[in-house]
């Protein structure tokens, strides 16, 4: 009697294991295989079945791949043209506008400038036009700033995309931002 009970128990466990295996997805079945070579063969067979099931024919797949390649090539061409146009500008012309294009930062730390004209706005802040066409505006109030025509002026980089206008040999400078 005990033998029959044991056989019945073994038979029911085999049937349950088979039903559990039937409920598993093929991917899960491959994952349960312990031998690495057999597991790899199982995954390869699944991949082959999946490739056979796809509804896209070889010609359609190739056309789609070529189209994607053409799109990538077009994007790369446009990017290259944009880079060439940006590289055409000198670093002096880009000085003060680098924060708008992060890869241009840290090229020049200090720029010696020639002041073409200067004027004050209604608030007393200086608007300075340089001989290279750049226009800079004072953004902080510093009180008196002396101007001497024969002196050398500079714009230097500060922290966090800030710039300072000053005169060589003088201790006073003020924060500026580029307008044009």
TrEMBL record:
Keywords: Signal. It comes from the Bacteria. Residues 83-100 have a biased composition (Basic and acidic residues). Residues 1-21 form the signal peptide. Residues 64-73 have a biased composition (Polar residues). The keyword Ligase does not apply. Residues 53-100 are annotated as: Disordered. Coiled coil: none annotated. This is Lipoprotein. It comes from Idiomarina aquatica. The lineage of its organism: Bacteria, Pseudomonadati, Pseudomonadota, Gammaproteobacteria, Alteromonadales.
């Amino acid at each position: 009697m005990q033998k029959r009970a044991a056989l019945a128990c073994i038979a029911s466990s085999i049937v349950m294991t088979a039903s559990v295996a039937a409920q598993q997805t093929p991917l899960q079945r491959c994952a349960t295989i312990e031998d690495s070579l057999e597991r790899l063969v199982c995954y390869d067979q699944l991949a082959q079945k999946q490739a056979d099931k796809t509804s896209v024919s070889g010609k359609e797949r190739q056309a789609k791949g070529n189209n994607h390649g053409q799109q990538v090539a077009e994007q790369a061409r446009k990017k290259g043209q944009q880079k060439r146009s940006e590289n055409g500008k000198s670093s002096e012309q880009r000085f003060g506008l680098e924060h708008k294009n992060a890869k241009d930062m840290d090229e020049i730390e200090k720029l010696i400038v020639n002041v073409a004209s200067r004027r004050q706005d209604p608030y007393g802040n200086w608007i300075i036009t340089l001989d290279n066409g750049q226009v800079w505006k004072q953004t902080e109030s510093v009180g008196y700033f002396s101007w001497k025509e024969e002196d050398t002026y500079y714009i230097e980089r500060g922290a966090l995309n800030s710039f300072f206008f000053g005169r060589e040999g003088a201790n006073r400078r003020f924060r500026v931002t580029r307008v044009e």
